[in-house]
């Protein structure tokens, strides 16, 4: 099926030939300025800029740790209202005072970081909640379950304001500047909705799951990775694919993660084929392929096949990229030199990594239940935080990198206050 074509996308149009969704352009206005077509979208820049001014209260709590499951608990707050593994977490970007978590118990909660108190439950899901996140201005929170039921709640009124059901959900994220949701499903489609109106557009990929996706910083394009190893860069306004990477340019296995640098000029893709590819977002050309020739290459074929790229990301302040592997390797690559700069080894697989917003520090969480902070310049371990009795499945870092919030297979979410000496 041709990307963006076919009967499915035609059927979803409305109001004749009008554009279904408008997306804000961050650059200078031009004749095709998308901002001219945005309606009723407010950008509260002052609120976003002032988010770091919000004080965060720490409160010593030791709830949820029972029977010596974990001898050491470095966390300040434990949220224990989930009754099964907690799969996802997101922090509200405006104030960084609220978290939303979703779990295997078919539940999602919005709760306060300061004391772990529940603000409200995002009720009504009937399958594991695997995706949850706040809109750019913290007005809305969206929750999505594996079966494809997506719900949006207004945070201040705690009321559900929109819901939609798609095929099996793979991922979901909010637009960086507008009340727009993007999601990928197992049938290969990416879906986009304007919230709360619900105007919808689909982007039809290959007939295999759209396994990962990310809206680029300009808000006009998105990169989506698929199970067949292909990567597409989509024009969100026009609904067509600008670039398709397949064959040698794509991956030899399912995509696991995608990321872009701060200005959106570079995209990085990761796969179960253990390769991370650096792509020029404007041309769709592969700039470089980062291959991990480490333990996996030297071990048996069976062990090598079990390794994969699990997470990746770009540093904002230096030309560095980090790639986390299932075999526990954290690789720091120098983008300008296109070479491996540091290799930081974990004893167990890396689940996710995040860069600090304004420094060359990488956070990793892994299957051993520990959060670690690494200096990407030296490759040295800065600190580690313990408290979970099972693997960490997701985590988030607040804007000023003073708080880490984790979710785990031990049914808990935890808030860690990150010490910042000399940083």
From TrEMBL:
Residues 314-392 form the Anaphase-promoting complex subunit 4-like WD40 domain. Residues 46-69 are annotated as: Disordered. It comes from Pelusios castaneus (West African mud turtle). The keyword Zinc-finger does not apply. The keyword Oxidoreductase does not apply. InterPro entries: Apc4-like_WD40_dom, WD40/YVTN_repeat-like_dom_sf, WD40_repeat_CS, WD40_repeat_dom_sf, WD40_rpt, WD_repeat_multifunction. WD repeats lie at residues 79-121, 122-163, 217-244, 343-384, 385-423. Plays a role in angiogenesis and cell migration. In smooth muscle cell migration, may act through the RhoA pathway. Keywords: Cytoplasm, Repeat, WD repeat. One of its GO terms (cellular component) is cytosol. This is Angio-associated migratory cell protein. It comes from the Eukaryota. It is found in: Cytoplasm.
